[in-house]
Design a protein that fits this description.
- The structure holds two protein chains of two kinds.
- Chain A is built from 14 helices and two strands, in the order ααααααβααααβαααα.
- By secondary structure, chain A is an all-alpha fold.
- Chain A has a two-stranded antiparallel ribbon.
- Chain B folds into two domains: 164 residues, P-loop containing nucleotide triphosphate hydrolases (Rossmann fold, 3-Layer(aba) Sandwich), CATH 3.40.50; 73 residues, no CATH class.
- Chain B is built from nine helices and ten strands.
- The longest helix of chain B is centred in the last third of the chain and has 15 residues.
- The chains are: A mainly alpha, B alpha/beta.
- Chains A and B meet through α7, α8, α9 and α10 of A and α2 and α3 of B.
- The complex binds adenosine-5'-triphosphate and magnesium ion.
- The site of magnesium ion has 4 residues of chain B, from α1.
- Magnesium ion binds next to α1 of chain B.
């Protein structure tokens, strides 16, 4: 991959190590008779995909959205609703009774996320900084309370469903489902890198660094930002569909502000601005949750410490610590 | 005579009680360098910002190439062919010098919504960008991040960005500042040629450069144009001498 060669040698090595851990870990765990670790790795891959999606807006565009749980949750509900209708046979829309295909669920999740992101982005992007953060949060909270109070799809109980199917793989079993999620993550990472290297990505990154200069060159930052926000929402929506399928459950907590905060934390932990930063953050997060969570209920205290440490001592996150120096760009 | 490239009519802008622009009328004709001089705080940069579109005037109008652009924002004016340099360099600091200029090239081409092809090695971007860098003498610094360039190099990169836009009008806010005597002389020669490509509205404190370059000079004081004319007329003008020339030359 080009990104791996253009990054510093140490960052490239770290990238390879993260990918190797994610790919070989579950496989080794399974051969050693610990299928539970496959599920952990699947969760890490899905969170990595979601954080990579947020990274499009936050890392490239400098848009610190505190409302991306909206898209994660909408993706989850899109999957759950399609599966519920396919199960009951009840028509969902225009006589179509949903679908049990994971790929269809992902497409529906991305479409729903796009539909939500366009108006949310168009309004939120009139503001910037802390106001942008507050407005995105407000929109996500509106959707959260809507889901809580809408009994048709479970209300505050959430929505249980059978995991969807996938052509050629038995997605009900842990390892094949992991491969599906890992594949989705790799596609997401490739898209991130392609966008970043393109003319669009160049202009978007320039609006983060200096919007005044971008305007003076004749480019409107708004259109770039809205496009980035929408693409970002779609990737997060796809991750939401995979997450709900993993748990066989679409839960209102996927829409909660804690989820939005978690996605930001993954990026900051792993290293903002680096291709595999969000992935590193997700692996670290899931590992901490498992190891520390098995030891104390209050493991989030240590997560807080880690975030504090990153904020004070290692602005480049985990990958920044490993790679040293400034990020590539 | 050809229509002016730029016409400003009775422009006014106040910051609270401060009248930063107080009824300014001036124009810029094809092929000329019109220098705008005046003491610190006279309102030169404020005027430039209103011409470029970054700042809305309270009243008055700005016409570009015969069209009223008072209601348009900075990007629309840039797309009409207006290129500006900032008094304090304004660049994408993390990008290399080359990538900054490549951005100007893609902006000029209107191709910022292309998502797939990488810019690196795209010769439709790199070739015009390298040409612009070469013109300002930065070809061998192409790969250096803008934030790590020296002050003088950043000034020249600003100019390269403007060149890469292939504009029909240049607004340059103190391009000589901090360049030193040698750098100023070089840039004077460069700008003298540049006016053949597009007219230049030049804000500058370096009086040697101004009198060597300008076809016309306007003197701004406390937001008002107190004198305007040929370099010889301005040299002879008592008000202009008192406001500005007296204490600097
Ligand atoms: N955004 C602003 N808010 C309030 N006052 C401002 C603002 N911008 C400029 N001013 C004031 O307006 C006046 C004109 O400033 P301006 O920067 O246009 O001067 P200038 O002629 O460019 O000076 P210099 O030669 O120092 O660059 C100054 O008194 C300045 O403090
Ligand atoms: Mg100024």
């Amino acid at each position: 991959m080009k990104s791996l060669s253009s990054a510093s040698p140490r960052e490239a090595a770290a990238n390879l190590a993260i990918l190797a851990l994610l790919i070989l870990g579950p496989w080794a765990a399974l051969s050693a008779g610990h299928p539970f670790y496959v599920t952990l790795a699947t969760k890490a891959a899905i969170l990595a995909l979601a954080a990579t999606g947020l990274h499009l807006a936050l890392g490239l565009g400098g848009l610190v959205s505190f409302g991306h749980a909206a898209f994660f949750g909408l993706g989850g509900y899109a999957a759950g609703i399609l599966a519920a209708h396919a199960g009951s046979g009840e028509a969902l829309i225009l006589g179509w009774a949903g679908s049990r295909e994971i790929l269809t669920m992902i497409l529906a999740a991305m479409g729903l996320a796009l539909l939500a992101a366009l108006p949310i982005g168009a309004i939120s992007l009139r503001t910037s900084g802390v106001y942008f953060l507050m407005i995105t949060l407000a929109f996500a909270q509106m959707i959260y309370y809507f889901a809580l109070s809408w009994p048709a799809y479970g209300g505050d109980d959430g929505l249980s469903f059978r995991r969807g199917i996938f052509p050629g793989l038995n997605s009900a079993r842990p390892l094949p489902y992991f491969w599906i999620c890992l594949g989705a993550l790799l596609i997401g990472l490739a898209l991130f890198q392609i966008l970043r290297a393109s003319r669009f990505g160049t202009a978007l990154e320039a609006t983060r660094q200096n919007p005044q200069r971008v305007e003076a060159l004749g480019i409107e930052p708004f259109g770039l930002r809205l496009t980035a926000f929408a693409l970002s929402a779609m990737m997060v929506g796809a991750a939401g569909a995979l997450f709900a399928n993993l748990n066989r459950f679409a839960s209102p907590s996927m829409l909660s502000w804690q989820m939005s905060g978690e996605l930001i934390v993954l990026i900051l932990l792993g290293g903002r601005g680096r291709l595999l930063g969000p992935t590193a953050g997700a692996v670290l997060f899931v590992a901490m949750e498992h190891v520390l969570g098995g030891w104390t209920e209050r493991w989030q205290f240590f997560l807080g410490l880690a975030v504090l440490g990153v904020a004070v001592f290692a602005r480049g996150g985990l990958l920044g610590l490993i790679a040293g120096g400034r990020r590539d760009g | 005579m050809a229509d002016p490239a730029l016409e400003i009519r009775d422009l006014r802008k106040s910051f609270g009680a401060l009248r930063a622009t107080d009824g300014v009328t001036l124009d810029l004709r094809p092929g000329e360098i019109h220098a705008l001089i005046g003491p610190n705080g006279a309102g030169k940069s404020t005027l430039i910002a209103q011409i470029a579109g970054g700042l809305r005037p309270d009243s008055g109008s700005v016409r570009l190439f015969g069209r009223d652009v008072t209601a348009l924002g900075a990007p629309a004016r840039a797309r009409m062919g207006l290129a500006r340099s900032f008094q304090i360099s304004s660049l994408a600091g993390e990008f290399s010098a080359l990538r900054n200029v490549m951005l100007a090239v893609q902006a000029r081409a209107g191709t910022s919504f292309r998502f797939l092809r990488p810019t690196r090695g795209d010769r439709r971007l790199t070739e015009p960008a390298m040409a612009a860098l070469a013109r300002v003498g930065l070809a061998d610094r192409a790969e250096v991040p803008a934030a790590l360039l020296s002050h003088g190099e950043r000034r020249r990169l600003e100019l390269a960005l403007a060149l890469a836009m292939e504009p029909r009008l240049f607004l340059l806010d103190e391009p000589m500042a901090g360049l030193g005597a040698e750098g100023s002389r070089e840039l004077t020669g460069f700008l003298s040629e540049l006016r053949r490509e597009a007219p230049i509205l030049l804000v500058e404190h370096d009086m040697d450069a101004v009198f060597a370059l300008a076809d016309r000079i306007s003197v701004l004081e406390a937001g008002r144009v107190i004198a305007s004319g040929s370099p010889a007329e301005i040299r002879a003008d008592a008000g202009a001498r008192r406001a500005y020339l007296g204490d600097s030359s």
